[in-house]
């Protein structure tokens, strides 16, 4: 599945709420998200618009690994 090309960091943070992630803090241009589902997990995403494709891919892969699902399943869920 193809990655979205026009997603901002803040939009991604909102979409990741489906996985239980909540914004816990923001320092400068970086947003820290935390979920308690399937154990505590933190990710940091830049508040850039748009996110670079490689950065977005790495974030989605990290989420997929935490939930033990494929990256494509994460992409489908946030699309």
TrEMBL record:
The keyword Nuclease applies. Keywords: Endonuclease, Hydrolase, Nuclease, RNA-binding, Stress response, Toxin-antitoxin system. InterPro entries: HicA_mRNA_interferase, HicA_sf. Signal peptide: none annotated. It comes from Raineya orbicola. Belongs to the HicA mRNA interferase family. This is YcfA-like protein. It comes from the Bacteria. GO terms for molecular function: endonuclease activity; hydrolase activity; mRNA binding. Pfam families: HicA_toxin.
């Amino acid at each position: 599945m193809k990655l979205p090309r026009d997603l901002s960091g803040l939009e991604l943070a909102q979409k990741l709420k489906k996985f239980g992630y909540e914004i816990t803090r923001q320092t400068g241009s970086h947003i820290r998200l935390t979920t308690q589902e399937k154990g505590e997990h933190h990710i940091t995403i830049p508040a850039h618009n748009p996110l670079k494709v490689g950065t977005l891919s790495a974030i989605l892969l990290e989420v997929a690994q935490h939930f033990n699902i494929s990256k494509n399943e994460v992409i489908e869920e946030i699309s």
